Amino acid sequence: MHELAITQDIVDTVCDHAAGRQVCHVTVEIGELTAVVPEAVRFCFGPATVGTVAQDASLELVGVPGVARCRVCGAEFAVADPVLLCVCGSVDADLLSGREIRIRSMEVSRECARPADAATIQPA
């Protein structure tokens, strides 16, 4: 299940960019032509955030449809599988979207989260 590794990378990136603030919400775009199962990412997200500043954050997954542009006629068309076949019959096309996995946004608290081990840290 490669979704676990992908989800862990998402959580690591979000936590790095949170700069110590509590993460409340994360929105991730997943292209429909990737081999990633969105529900598997959702399933892995909670366990991957345990003990991090993203623990208890909500996750929103947004599907990105496959779209290509024909190099012959210039038409943009929907792509449901890896075969880029334009309505004009050409297979000479550029994939514009559908293969991305992107963190679109994240919401964080204003205050830095208190470290989990704050109770055991002695003042200097």
From TrEMBL:
The keyword Repressor does not apply. GO terms for molecular function: nickel cation binding; zinc ion binding. It holds the Pfam family HypA. Keywords: Metal-binding, Nickel, Zinc. Zn(2+) binds at residues 70, 73, 86, 88. One of its GO terms (biological process) is protein maturation. Ni(2+) binds at residue 2. Belongs to the HypA/HybF family. Involved in the maturation of [NiFe] hydrogenases. Required for nickel insertion into the metal center of the hydrogenase. This is Hydrogenase maturation factor HypA. It comes from Nocardia speluncae.
